[in-house]
Specification:
It is a single chain. The chain is of the alpha+beta class. It is built from three helices and seven strands. The strands form two sheets. A four-stranded mixed sheet has the order 3-4-6-7. A hairpin with a 4-residue loop joins strand 6 and strand 7. The two termini are 25 Å apart.
């Protein structure tokens, strides 16, 4: 029962953070189209997350199998535009050779879809999700999830896979290998 409550609470947190990000993406008249390059803000955040986790006690505890670890860095606030940074929905697949990851990234109905950038360190893989190509005009406020595969320079190995937005390990989804185990 406790596992179900923990899973439900985690799902509700991810959905709430995702809805906040998608709300910014799906809003009408929300400005110019985004590019396919990560914004300087998302790159800086990925570096902050990597620095906080790499070599930390939380990282050691996570690798030891403790999944309720207090993260060494907090999540971003809700006022971050989704074309800058948005939370991930979960890790769905790790390639057999460990050199690519598939994650669910969210976007709205008035954009060209999600993109995911990668920052690799010796101890972590930090994923920064955002939406690209925001369009003006009438939009529905639905949240769409899309699987995005990212290529890594080296195998995941025992590195922790982190979400730049939440500052936490990317949650596992349906049958994926645990992120960073």
């Amino acid at each position: 029962m406790r596992t179900d409550m923990t899973r439900t609470a985690r799902l509700l947190l991810v959905l709430a953070l995702s809805a906040a990000g998608a709300g910014a993406a799906a809003g009408c008249g929300s400005a110019e189209a985004g590019g396919t390059e990560p914004s300087p803000r998302s790159d800086a955040r990925a570096q902050q997350v990597a620095k906080a986790w790499d070599g930390s006690r939380a990282a050691d505890r996570w690798r030891a199998g403790h999944r309720l670890v207090a993260p060494p860095i907090g999540p971003l606030g809700q006022n971050v535009p989704a074309d800058v940074l948005a939370p991930l929905g979960g890790l769905t697949q790790v390639a057999g050779n460990g050199r690519s990851l598939t994650v669910v990234a969210h976007h709205g109905s008035c954009d060209d879809g999600p993109l995911v950038d990668v920052l690799e360190t010796s101890d972590s893989v930090v994923l920064s999700a955002a939406v690209t190509g925001l369009h003006d005009g009438p939009c529905t406020s639905e949240l769409r999830g899309k699987k995005v595969t990212v290529k890594l320079d080296g195998p995941v190995g025992d590195r922790i896979v982190l979400d730049a937005f939440t500052g936490r390990p990317v949650p596992d989804a349906a049958g994926a290998a645990p992120a960073g185990s």
